[in-house]
Design a protein that fits this description.
The chain is α/β, with parallel strands linked by helices and 406 residues long. It folds into 2 domains: 265 residues, Rossmann fold (3-Layer(aba) Sandwich); 88 residues, 2-Layer Sandwich (formyl-coa transferase, domain 3). The chain has 18 helices and 11 strands. A 6-stranded parallel β-sheet has the order 3-2-1-4-5-6, with helices on both faces. Strands 7-8-9 form a 3-stranded antiparallel β-sheet, covered by helices on one side. β1, α1 and β2 form a beta-alpha-beta unit. α1 crosses α8. The longest helix has 24 residues. It is elongated, with a radius of gyration of 25 Å. It starts with 11 loop residues before the first strand and ends in a 5-residue tail after the last helix.
Length: 406
Amino acid sequence: MSTVDQALSGVKVVEFASYAAGPHVGKILANFGAIVVHVESRQRPDGFRLEYPPFKDGIPGLDRGGCFAFFNDSKYGVALDLKNEAALRLARRLVAWCDVVIENMRPGVMARLGLGFEAMRELNPGVILLSSCNMGQTGPRAHTPGFGSQLSAQAGFCGLTGEPDGPPMLLYGPYIDFIASTMSVSAVLAALVRRRETGEGAWIDVAQYETGLLFIADALLDFHMTGKEATRASNDSPDAAPHDAYRCQGEDWLALSCWSDAEFARLASVIGRPELARDPQYADLAARKRNAAALRTPIEAWCGTRSSDAAAGILQEAGVHAHRVNTVADLLHDPQLVHRHTWRRRRHPVIGDQMYLFPAFDLAETPGDITAAGPRLGADNDTVFRNFIGLTEEEHAACREAHAFD
C-alpha cells in the first residue's frame, strides 16, 4: 500500500448513493486519498449487495456480494436508516463535516429527506453536492427511473449496435454509468479547486443520459452537417476494410482492421496472398468494402491455422492493426495490466481474497492505492460517528437506542 501522502488526503466525502454511477465516483476519490463514507441501511441496503452476483460460495448475503465490494473498496461503511429522525440528525452532521456529498437518487428524494442542496448549504456553506441520475434534475423526463441498459438504448448506442438487417443489440453491463462516473470525478475535482480559490460550494447536476452522447459525437455531427443518419453496420467501418473479427484456432478470435491500401498490401503479403493487393476486387477501400464477404475467406483460412496471440504478433510485426479478442479470464492475467498493477488483491473479511480494479490513471508523485476491501454493512459506524463526527458515548448509545443504525 502507498506510504506517501495521497493527492486527496484530507478531502472528506459522504456518499448517499448505490449501485454503480455514484459509488464509482467515491471509489476513485478514495483511491487517491479521500475519506469516503458510504451510507446505506439494513432496511435499504445498496442494491449491489443482494441483487447482483457473484456471491461468496454462491449464497447471497449482505456481506457476501463481490459486486458491491468491487465498487466500494477503500471506503468506510455506515448504516443509517434515513427514515429515522435520529439517523437524519446524524446524516446532517455528516453533511456538516464533509467537503463533498455524492447522491444518485431520483430528483427530489434528497430534498424530501431534508437533505436538499439548500438545506445542506445551511449546514455547510462550502459543501459540494454531486447529484447523478438518469436524466438530470430538470426536464420532462427527469423522474424517469432505469438502469444502464435503458440509458444505452436512449443514448443511441443500441440503435447503432448489431447487424444491418437485425434488431438493436443491448450492450454488456451499465456502460453509461461509468462514462458518467468518470466525468463526475472531473467535475468534483474542478469544484474542489474552485472552492479552494473562492470558498464557494457547488451543486453539480449530472445527467447520465447526456454523458453518453459524447461517445456517438461523430454520428451526431454527421447528421447535423449532412442529414445522414448512422445505422447498424455490424463490424463494418466507413474508413477501414477489412474491419472485423476472425476465428483462429480453438475458440480464439482476432480483431483486425486495415486503414490504408498500403496496410492491406502488408496484410495480403503476411497471409501468403500478395496478389490480393493487386486484384481490382480489393484494390482500394471501396472495392474491399463491396467484396468484404469474399475477402473474409482467405483471411480466416490463415487465422485458422494459428492461435490469436500468434496471429496478432505476426500481423503487428508487419504493421497491421490486430489484437487478440480477450476473454474475461485473459484480462486478469494480461501482462500489460499486471505490469501496471491494475489488479490489486485485498482480503475481504467475509469473501476472502478479492481482486480490486485500480483506476486507469495514476499520479507520479502522489500515487493512489486500493487501501482496503469493500466494507461490511455498518462496519465503521463507531469509527465514523465516534471518531470523525465526535459523538460522545452517551450520544452514540442514544442513537443505538433510537434504532438510527438499523
